Amino acid sequence: MTDATTGGDAAFVEFDHVQKSYDGETLVVKDLNLSIAKGEFLTMLGPSGSGKTTCLMMLAGFETATHGEIRLAGREINNIPPHKRGIGMVFQNYALFPHMTVAENLAFPLEVRKLGKSEREQKVKRALDMVQMGAFGGRRPAQLSGGQQQRIALARALVFEPELVLMDEPLGALDKQLREHMQFEITRLAHELGITTVYVTHDQTEALTMSDNVAVFDDGRIQQLAPPAVLYEEPENSFVAQFIGENNTLEGVVQEIKGDIAVVKLDDGELIDCKPVNVSKAGERTRVSIRPERVETNKARLQPGAHTLKAEVLEFIYMGDIYRTRLRVAGNDDFVVKTRNAPDQKRMQPGEQIEIGWLPSDCRALDA
Amino acid sequence: MSDITQDGPMLAADGTPLKKSLARALRRQKIRALMLIAPLLIFVLVTFIAPIADMLFRSVENQIVRDTLPRTVVALKDWNPDGEEIPGEAVFQALNLDFQIAAEEKNHTKLGSRLNYESPGISSVFRSTGRGADKIGKDAEKTFTGIDPRWKDPAIWAGIFASPEAETALPRSARAYEAFAKSVRAEGKKEVAKAKLWPVVFSALLDDLTLAQPDAAAVAALPAPGPELVNAALAAGLQPIDAKQAFLEINDGWSKLDLWQTISAYSPPYTAGYFLNAADFEQTSHGIEARPPSERIYLKLFWRTLWMSMTITACCILLGYPVAWLLANLRASTANVLMILVLLPFWTSLLVRTSAWKVLLQQQGVINDLLVWMGLVSDGNRLVMINNQFGTIIAMTHILLPFMILPLYSVMKTVPPSYVRAAKSLGATPWTAFWRVYFPQSIPGIGAGSILCFILAIGYYITPELVGGTEGVFISRYIAYHISTSLNWGLAAALGTILLAAVLLLYYVYDKIVGIDNVKLG
């Protein structure tokens, strides 16, 4: 489906037909091909059990690939033990050594690299300052809050200046506000230092806001590898469309395909125009995907060429910045529309019959 | 700002001090908690703490000399134990009465055994004197009945000594008679006025009438026929008893300075003697001295108990650590099977396990047979692996191993694998990752296991006794020996107390070095 994308030829990290099985019966990772350019921030996104963490562990060296090659800077690393790979890693539970102070934790990778004392202290200080934790060097990890521990774990993974940093759901244990702040902080650091980052998460917002590229994993395969905007706007299959952001699905059969327009006959008989993405010929079943914010309820604002459908309001939820309205459209009770809380926006009442519309280009015919 | 600048204790909403208010709120809970533990607490207090306290007290308690020979102990205060002379007549006079009473009460053998711990030979002196001492009393009895046969009548004695004047007129007799009367009453078979008199009362009477002139007024105030009998006896020209001469005739052990020094040294009600003994010292007339090297046994045993227990603990760490690590890192199903193997010894009798080691380790045993069969050892040179320290260390390590593995396992279980992974990802070799990151976090388990193993080992009895021979036994053997065979409970208590103190000291040292907070059982 997807091989190398951005970054051109100079792939820094490469997975070449990598497979992984734990029990010799089922494959957890099925034929993974992925290349990551130097300086890229790549996120592996997927539900739990999709193989994303296994991929990360294979890259770090804690799991061995059953088949295939993993290359780092052109060198095959399958048989290099983790401590010789020089890859920084941030763990889900931070894994700060509880019997060492923060400064000792940071000095650890420098110590095992046999750096001199003054150089060590200098680097530790710089790393602590980098995450704004300069005053905490003498504390024990247990005396720090979750967010502070997270920063220290980050500083420790960066202090020995690795070219590649892996992060395994590092923000999972933080509360929402702190998480958003740390997301920003991590991307800032990654870009400032120019390091290549592989980030694993199951949180799609995190993936979209932080990454240069997102690899969506499911069932041991990469379903789509693309920059966040492309991933959101142009999902290549219905799994990605469902998994990333909110999505409305209408099921039907392809009637005909004319260039970049596919005519789909919905299950209730309505005909709509879509953009064919994952369909090739007439008669195929398809799922049509439309993002909730691309649906217009205000007739006056409809773009020319927009397609309209009748709908019944089932539920209206006020969410502050937006209104979320659940509609019945073409037999689907879970059709959601999001509208901006604008002064001229009407608040709809349940039971109301309205007309909604969207541009055929926003409506993607995907695999069933 | 103003409302928080308040002097004195914090107050609750109703104005009572917050502490008091809190205590009241928690009182019910506390009482309930106390009630819940009460059955166990009482059980432990009655069956465990109190006997232990009693045993500890026995290690210093020494009332027996003072109780058995009260007059002698007082008289001995004027005697110089560092001199060359045995005590004079006054002490022997006191001893005469004390000893005859003790012999009648059959306490002299107990005292003999007690003093025999300190100076061997005293017991036989006491026994033989016990058989002969009443001759002195009987001689005195003959003297008095020769003067007036009425002296023989217990009823007359009962009459005279019922009077309070008797105490003033005839003080020694009064006390000797009191001891007699008490003994007869305690026996409960006869009336005091009809029981056969102890000869010692005549000895005491003779002393009263000859060693000092009795108070005439007090004698006159005695109930009849007291004054008449006493005056008649006084008029008969009595000769005082030569107690020293008499005792030396019964047993010349009494002429030995050493015996008197021992009695004098152990006359206070509390003694350090048991402890000195337990540390291979003795109390001599020249103060505290180490025993001659050939008699030193306990220090060597204490030392052996300590170093062997430490060796056993170290062996347990070496053998248990990898197993615990494996247990903590295997899949749950495999770990459970392994855990059963670890726990299996707990379900087998200690004696069976120890006996099994005897079978395995003896010269004609399984291991030697195997070594001979493999040609590693020639048949003539079978290894001696039992009835020595090696045997004790092997068997004890096997028996105590689960006590090391379990705490280690429960601590290791709490160390997430991500720590070692993190260390490796930071560039540490597997060994550095283990030594710098994993090992420090498993120390609490080592601490708990070591304390458990060491304390169990230091007091172990059965296994060293069965497989240790003479070279591999612990101090516990001598504690058991003194409790059940030599019946020197004081010494056994002192040995036990020293052992307890050693454990507490090590515990303290451990706390200082490792920190007792670093001990976790899970």
How does this model look, in words?
The complex is a heterodimer of chains A (368) and B (522). Chain A is α+β, with helices and mostly antiparallel strands and 368 residues long. Chain A folds into two domains: 11-238, Rossmann fold, CATH 3.40.50.300; 246-367, RNA polymerase II/Efflux pump adaptor protein, barrel-sandwich hybrid domain (OB fold (Dihydrolipoamide Acetyltransferase, E2P)), CATH 2.40.50. Chain A is 23% helix and 35% strand. Chain A is built from eight helices and 19 strands. In chain A, strands 6-7-8-3-9-10 form a six-stranded mixed sheet, sandwiched between helices. In chain A, strands 11-12-13-19-14 form a five-stranded mixed barrel. Chain A is globular. With 522 residues, chain B is an all-alpha fold. Chain B is built from 26 helices and two strands. In chain B, helix 17 (298-329) crosses helix 23 and helix 19 (350-361) crosses helix 21 (389-412). Chain B is elongated and about 110 Å long. The two termini of chain B are 47 Å apart.
Strand sequence of the main sheet of chain B, in spatial order?
1-2
User: Shape of chain A, please?
Assistant: globular
The oligomerization state is heterodimer
Return the CATH architecture of the largest domain in chain B: Orthogonal Bundle
By secondary-structure content and strand pairing, the structural class of chain B works out as mainly alpha
The fraction of residues assigned to DSSP E strands of chain A is: 25-35%
Largest interface: A-B, 27 and 19 residues
Total beta-strand segments of chain A: 19
List keywords for this structure.
heterodimer, A: 368 residues, alpha+beta, Rossmann fold, OB fold (Dihydrolipoamide Acetyltransferase, E2P), 2 domains, six-stranded mixed sheet, five-stranded mixed barrel, 23% helix, globular, disordered N terminus, B: 522 residues, mainly alpha, MetI-like fold, 3 domains, two-stranded antiparallel ribbon, 2 strands
Quick structural gist:
The complex is a heterodimer of chains A (368) and B (522). Chain A has 368 residues and is α+β, with helices and mostly antiparallel strands. Chain A is 23% helix and 35% strand.
